Amino acid sequence: VTLLKKYLEGLGLRIFYFYAGEQGRKLAALDTLVGHWVKDIMARGDFFDDWLAIYSWFNVLKDELKNRDDVVIFDGTPRRIYEAQVVDKLMKELGRSIALPIHIDVFEDTCRQRLLVRKRADDDLVAINSRLALFETAVRPVLNWYGDRVITVNGEGAIEEVNKLMMEALTQLP
Q1: Residue 73: phi, psi to the nearest 5?
Q2: CB-count exposure of residue 95 (10 Å: 0-12, 13-18, 19+)
Q3: What's the pLDDT tens digit per position in 27-51?
Q4: Quick one: pLDDT at residue 41?
Q5: What is the distance between the alpha carbons of residues 132 and 111, in angstroms, rounded to a whole number?
Q6: 3-class SS letters over the chain
Q7: Total-model pTM
Q8: Are the C-beta atoms of residues 38 and 28 closer than 8 Å to each other?
Q9: How many other CB atoms are there within 10 angstroms of residue 36's CB atom?
Q10: For residues 57 and 77, is the Cβ–Cβ distance under 8 A?
Q11: Residues 120, 82: Cα–Cα separation, whole Å
């Protein structure tokens, strides 16, 4: 996603970028009841409830999305059908086109290895395995709900390779 952002910025486009994991880690770092609760959710490898996921991105979007022409990138969300419906509804209300999801498809083992290499506190094997299981039960139905809108890119290669495939897919859009 970083290379996609740089490419789009190089075209002179303004980007609104929301990374769900980063926002979750910010909340988990708070020394409050909510911070401890979020830290526990992340340590278990659970997904946030719909309301918290939506609040997290909306709280940033309300302050940072300035123009209808800004490119909006949600990274790591939506993870449930209701979240996807809210994203589409809000984009329509703001006079924007509905979401165009990009699914970077990787084998579970590849995903597990890449996450372990990051060495983040919420990336231990138990949490990773939980998130991978949740992908099948929560996120896969979202991809099915999006249907033909989903752009699926083979994510098994190096970052540069995957980025090239993503760019090729995006440039072929009508």
Answers
A1: -120, 115
A2: exposed
A3: 999 999 999 999 999 999 999 999 9
A4: 95
A5: 8
A6: CHHHHHHHHHCCCCEEEEEHHHHHHHHHCCCCHHHHHHHHHHHHCCCCCHHHHHHHHHHHHHHHCCCCCCEEEEECCCCCHHHHHHHHHHHHHCCCCCCCCEEEECCHHHHHHHHHHHCCCCCCHHHHHHHHHHHHHHHHHHHHHHHHHCEEEECCCCHHHHHHHHHHHHHCCC
A7: 0.86
A8: yes
A9: 12
A10: yes
A11: 28
To which residue do tokens 């509804």 refer?
A: 89
CB distance 24 to 42 below 8 Å? yes
Report how far residue 87's alpha carbon sits from residue 74's, in angstroms, rounded to the nearest whole number. Answer: 10
Type of residue found at 33: L
- Amino acid found at 32: T
Exposed/middle/buried for residue 16 (C-beta within 10 Å: 0-12, 13-18, 19+): middle
104 φ, ψ (degrees, to nearest 5): -90, 105
Distance CA 16, CA 67 (A): 10
What span, in angstroms and rounded, lies between the C-alpha atoms of 14 and 157?
A: 28
